[in-house]
Structures are given as structure tokens and as C-alpha cells.
């Protein structure tokens, strides 16, 4: 079936499934009703995508308050312009996709020479963006299977622009291409010989597994890639080797909105995480001004890829041994003293989801809510789906459109103090090649665990999504509730839009169905679960004890239910909570319309 015919079928389906939603009277913006139905009008033009075709979103807010999302090259049928698509918004609800991408195929000549490939083979992945000294710095992955299938050439590169919408030029060319960039870099005394921060790096973390130090374990940089092949790695230890050259992200403090500063041998640095699968997630350091890699041995700035200096390419902090951990982001909360490691995990198409653990140290170990370390060994790596508390994953609420394969997350403290969590999501009502940007608000419980409003963020002049006092009588009612599950058992399952079943990890690949739960005004829980619930004096700090399961702490708030199929209103009461003492699971739900 060709892509055009397949798209027309999907478009017709989208129109039909949303007919009820369009007919419903709503008291919120029509964007909530039409977001997913708009996929039916997709015509391949990048400037009309809106939240469609957004993968691995990086959420950034400029000084004027405008939000930007930069995302991986991805689109239905391969349509769209290469080089990281850009979306803008003023309210996190309405998104405009720009016709021009961030990099616009302005590849670094050194990169082209090094990997020796045709530009048409390359794709640009998972960016991160910061602003300093009036310039915009974009760090991103470039990948191609140019040498042989399954034998990737990959690097993380730096590009700079004087505008948030680009074009971003490779660091080594930016001063010559963009006059303002040249002026600022000259004043800073910064220049670049090349634009790569780190390239796909092989190492054997089994050599010194106790302290996770790899400074003396450097094996081969990619200048010698042809003599260190994927098959050789399999023979020598398989997927224990290698930090994949993708998914860069700065370590940020969500209590202040600033990058966390570290001092390495007298040099002020920022922490940068990257990597995937293979050897896991790495933490390396870059200079605070130039963003060049820093040698941890002496604090010197490296004007070359970090993989050319033993140990400069980082320390393993999570994942490893081939576990499908990627898209990591480490955040710090200076109000409670914890670091949090968020990872996207699983098969991107079938059983993707986001897991989280926390630590008092940036290098870990990151422990999930059930007490298991996200720094994996050969045994735990085979069970990675049950490690990392499931802050968001596939779910299906009664009489609602449902979602799956959420991941590629980006966390930002906005200028109004709200903490935002962006991700991409596939659906259980459109074929899997439809994927969308979603934004949620994130909170921290009083015992220091992150929880999400599982409904997409909504705010307008009449509604401000925030924690505020709610009467217990208004909270009481019937809820469609989800208790997250984790596990490693696999089964054959046919995701929506698939012609044939695929093998998935059941807990993550099959959407968790909601159960009916009643919260009574007298504090009792009944229905699918029994127990008790309580509300603190502030009117939003919420706790619920489920008999035989655990005690969950979190919040209750007014929200907008974007997924409700029909009804008089999309306004709802939602609760979101977490058990960090026993199960490490999340428990959340939306109140049914009264």
C-alpha cells in the first residue's frame, strides 16, 4: 500500500473517530477538540503540522516568553525539511510549525569528511537548546548507517545562531556565516576548530564496574572505527560497549531554571548527558562559555571531540548492557536536594515509555521508587522494563481516546515557575506513524518524587492550570483511575493500525486500562480498589491508601481532559500520586462528568 493511499485511509478514520468530539459542546478552546482530528487535513506541508510529526521534542522558552520546540527529523511519509523542525507557541496549547528547519542542511565539512557519506543518508536527532550572551546554542545528534547497515556513524555536534529560529550554523563556521555570532564570540575570545562535541564512543565498562570510572578504559575512538566493528564488540562483550552519539541534554535545576554549575579542576562547567542502548547513558562536562568538552584529568578545554581524550567522553550513570534506555534527561531540584534521571525506554514503535529514578549525586546511583538501580548490570539489563518508575506510559481510560509510546521527554521550568514536561506520543486511534507533541505539568510530592498531570496542559484567560484549594465535596466522585504496572513478560499484541500482531513487553506495550474508583466525601475509597484518601489543609495535597497495595502521595487539581470523547464539558478534577515507599508505582485518575 503506498503512502498516499494509506494516509487517505488514516485521514478518513480520524474524521470519523472525532465526529462525536466535534459535536460536543465545549467550554474550552477548540484546539482541544481538533488537535488529533487535524491530522486528517495533513497535506505534507511542514508549516501546517502544528503538534503533528513532533518526535523527541526539546522545549525552550525565550526571554520574551515565547515557547519553542525543536524536534528530530521525522514525518509521515518522509515529508518535511531535514535539520530539526521548529514549533512556536505563546500558550503551550496552540502550536505553529515553521516552514524552515533549524539547521537547513548546513552540515559541518569536517563531519562530512570524517564519516564519508552522502548527505541524503543523514538525519538529525534529539536537540537541546540554550541561550547565553545573546546567542542560541543548539546541541544535536547526527547519525547515518553510511558504512554498513546497523553499523552507525554518529556524533553530537554544536551549532550556533543569533536567532531562535536559525539558521543554526556548525560552531566552526558560525562566526563567518552569522555576523552577530562572530561579534559575540570575538568579545568572548571563543573560536572553534571543529564542531563535534563527542562521537560514537566504544569502551568496556566491565573493566572497572565497581566505581563506574572509565577514565582509564578508553578503547578506540572513531578515527579507528573501521578496525573496531560491531561484530568485534559482540565478540568482546556485546552491548556492554559504547555510548551512542545521540540525545544530548544539560543538567538543569528545575527550582531555578538554570543549568547546574560544576567546577572541574578549577574550570566552571556544565553537565551534559547523552547516549543510548549499548553502554548506557553518559555524563560528561563542557565549558560554561564555549560548550567545548573538558578533560576531567586537568580541567583543560578540548578543541576536538571528547572521544579523542580518554575519560573526557563521560561516566556511565544509567542503563548499559544493551538495555533500551535512551533520551535521558537529568534534572536537579535544589529545593529538595535530589537529582532525577528520566529515560525513554523500550521499542520506539510498540512499548516505549518514560521511567525515572533519583539520587543525591549527579553520577548516581539513580534508584526508582521500588528501590532498584537504573545503573544496570548484565542481569538487570534483561529486565529493564521493570526498572524506572513509570511516570508516563500507555493507558486507556473508559470512554476516552487513549495514547501509547510516550517518550523523548524534555523538562523545563517556565518563567512563571511551572515545571513543564514535553514528550511525543503515538495513539490508540490513529496508525502508529501519526505521532504528536504533548505537554504536561510536573510537580514534586512532599517526599520528593515527580508526578505529572496526566492530562495535557491547558491554560487560557479563563483557566490557569495550577495547584489551588479545592473543597473535598467537589473532589468526591467517580474516577477512571490507572495504577501503573511494570514487568518483563512479553506477548503478541496488535497495536492500533497494525495489520499483524507484534511481540511487545505486555506491561508497556498493551495500554493499561482504567478502573472505576469512587472517592467518597467521608474519605473512603471504593470500587476496583478499596482504602482511604485525605486532603491536606492547603486543599490540593492529596494522599490515598489502597488496601494491600500501598500509600500514594501527590496532588489533586482542576484540569482539562483533552481525550474525553463527548460530554458537556472537558473540565475535570484529576489526581496524580506516587508510592515511593513500597511499590514505586503511580496512581492517577480523572473524575467522570457528573
Summarize the structure.
By secondary structure, this protein is mainly beta.
Characteristic key phrases:
mainly beta; single chain; eight-stranded antiparallel beta barrel; six-stranded mixed beta sheet; 11% helix; disordered N terminus; 41 strands; 594 residues
Task: Explain this structure.
The structure is a single chain. A hairpin with a 4-residue loop joins strand 20 and strand 21. The protein is mainly β. The chain is built from 9 helices and 41 strands. 11% of the residues lie in helices and 38% in strands. The strands form 10 sheets. It has an 8-stranded antiparallel barrel with strand order 31-35-36-37-38-39-40-41. The two termini are 45 Å apart.
Write the layout of secondary structure elements.
Layout: H1 3-17, H2 19-23, H3 30-34, E1 58-61, E2 67-71, E3 85-89, E4 96-97, H4 109-115, E5 123-132, E6 135-148, E7 151-161, E8 169-170, H5 171-177, H6 179-188, E9 196-199, E10 201-204, E11 218-220, H7 230-236, E12 241-243, E13 249-250, E14 252-253, E15 258-259, E16 261-264, E17 267-276, E18 280-287, E19 315-318, E20 325-333, E21 338-345, E22 353-359, E23 389-392, E24 395-396, E25 403-413, E26 419-427, E27 435-444, E28 450-452, E29 459-460, E30 463-464, H8 472-475, E31 477-483, E32 490-493, E33 502-505, H9 506-509, E34 512-513, E35 515-519, E36 524-527, E37 531-535, E38 541-546, E39 550-560, E40 571-578, E41 586-591
Parallel strand pairs: 14-20, 24-34
Antiparallel strand pairs: 1-2, 2-3, 3-4, 5-6, 6-7, 7-8, 7-9, 10-11, 10-12, 13-17, 14-15, 16-17, 17-18, 18-19, 20-21, 21-22, 22-23, 25-26, 26-27, 27-28, 29-30, 31-35, 31-41, 32-33, 35-36, 36-37, 37-38, 38-39, 39-40, 40-41
Amino acid at each position: 500500500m503506498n503512502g498516499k493511499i494509506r494516509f487517505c485511509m488514516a485521514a478518513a478514520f480520524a474524521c470519523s473517530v472525532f465526529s462525536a468530539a466535534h459535536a460536543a459542546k465545549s467550554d474550552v478552546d477548540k484546539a482541544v477538540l481538533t488537535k488529533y482530528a487535524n491530522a486528517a487535513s495533513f497535506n505534507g506541508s511542514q508549516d501546517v503540522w502544528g503538534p503533528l510529526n513532533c518526535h523527541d521534542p526539546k522545549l525552550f522558552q525565550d526571554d520574551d516568553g515565547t515557547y519553542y520546540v525543536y524536534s528530530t527529523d521525522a514525518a509521515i511519509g518522509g515529508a518535511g525539511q531535514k535539520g530539526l523542525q521548529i514549533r512556536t507557541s505563546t500558550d503551550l496549547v496552540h502550536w505553529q510549525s515553521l516552514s524552515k528547519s533549524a539547521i537547513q542542511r548546513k552540515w559541518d565539512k569536517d563531519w562530512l569528511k570524517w564519516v564519508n557519506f552522502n548527505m541524503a543518508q543523514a538525519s538529525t536527532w534529539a536537540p537541546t537548546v540554550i541561550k547565553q550572551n545573546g546567542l542560541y546554542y543548539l546541541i544535536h545528534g547526527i547519525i547515518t548507517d553510511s558504512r554498513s547497515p546497523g553499523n552507525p556513524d554518529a556524533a553530537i555536534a554544536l551549532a550556533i545562531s543569533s536567532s531562535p529560529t536559525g539558521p543554526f550554523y556548525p560552531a566552526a563556521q558560525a562566526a563567518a556565516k552569522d555576523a552577530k555570532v562572530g561579534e559575540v564570540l570575538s568579545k568572548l575570545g571563543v573560536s572553534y576548530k571543529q564542531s563535534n562535541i563527542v562521537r560514537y564512543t566504544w569502551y568496556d565498562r566491565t573493566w572497572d564496574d565497581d566505581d563506574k570510572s572509565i577514565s582509564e578504559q578508553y578503547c578506540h575512538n572513531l578515527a579507528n572505527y573501521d578496525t573496531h566493528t560491531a561484530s568485534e564488540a559482540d565478540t568482546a562483550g556485546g552491548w556492554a560497549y559504547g555510548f551512542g552519539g545521540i540525545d544530548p541534554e544539560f543538567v538543569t535545576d528545575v527550582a531555578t531554571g538554570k543549568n547546574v554549575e560544576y567546577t572541574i579542576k578549577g574550570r566552571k562547567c556544565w553537565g551534559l548527558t547523552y547516549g543510548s542502548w549499548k553502554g548506557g547513558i553518559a555524563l560528561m562536562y563542557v565549558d560554561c562559555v564555549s560548550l567545548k568538552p573538558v578533560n576531567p584529568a586537568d580541567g583543560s578545554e578540548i578543541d576536538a571531540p571528547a572521544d579523542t581524550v580518554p575519560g573526557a567522553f563521560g561516566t556511565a550513570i544509567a542503563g548499559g548492557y544493551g538495555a533500551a534506555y535512551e533520551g535521558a534527561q537529568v534534572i536537579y531540584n535544589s529545593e529538595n536536594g535530589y537529582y532525577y534521571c528520566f529515560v525513554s525506554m523500550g521499542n520506539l514503535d510498540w512499548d516505549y515509555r518514560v521511567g525515572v529514578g533519583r539520587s543525591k549525586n549527579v553520577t548516581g546511583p539513580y534508584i526508582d521508587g521500588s528501590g532498584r538501580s537504573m545503573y544496570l548490570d548484565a542481569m538487570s539489563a534483561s529486565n529493564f522494563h521493570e526498572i524506572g518508575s513509570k511516570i508516563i506510559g500507555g493507558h486507556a481510560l473508559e470512554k476516552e481516546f487513549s495514547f501509547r509510546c510516550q517518550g523523548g521527554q524534555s523538562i523545563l521550568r517556565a518563567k512563571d515557575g511551572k515545571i513543564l514536561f514535553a514528550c511525543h506520543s503515538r495513539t490508540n486511534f490513529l496508525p502508529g506513524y501519526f505521532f504528536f507533541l504533548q505537554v504536561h505539568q510536573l510537580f514534586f510530592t512532599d517526599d520528593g518524587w515527580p508526578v505529572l498531570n496526566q492530562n495535557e496542559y491547558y491554560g487560557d484567560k479563563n483557566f490557569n492550570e495550577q495547584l489551588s484549594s479545592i473543597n473535598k465535596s467537589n473532589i468526591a466522585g467517580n474516577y477512571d483511575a490507572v495504577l501503573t504496572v511494570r514487568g518483563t513478560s512479553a506477548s503478541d499484541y496488535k497495536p492500533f493500525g497494525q495489520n499483524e500482531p507484534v511481540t511487545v513487553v505486555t506491561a508497556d506495550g498493551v495500554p493499561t486500562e482504567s478502573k472505576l474508583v469512587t472517592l467518597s466525601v467521608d474519605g473512603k475509597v471504593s470500587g476496583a480498589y478499596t482504602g482511604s484518601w485525605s486532603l491536606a489543609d492547603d486543599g490540593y495535597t492529596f494522599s490515598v491508601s489502597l488496601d494491600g497495595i500501598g500509600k500514594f502521595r501527590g496532588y489533586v487539581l482542576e484540569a482539562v481532559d483533552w481525550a474525553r470523547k463527548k460530554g458537556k464539558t472537558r473540565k475535570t478534577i484529576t489526581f496524580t500520586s506516587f508510592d515511593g515507599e513500597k511499590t514505586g508505582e503511580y496512581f492517577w485518575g480523572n473524575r467522570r462528568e457528573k
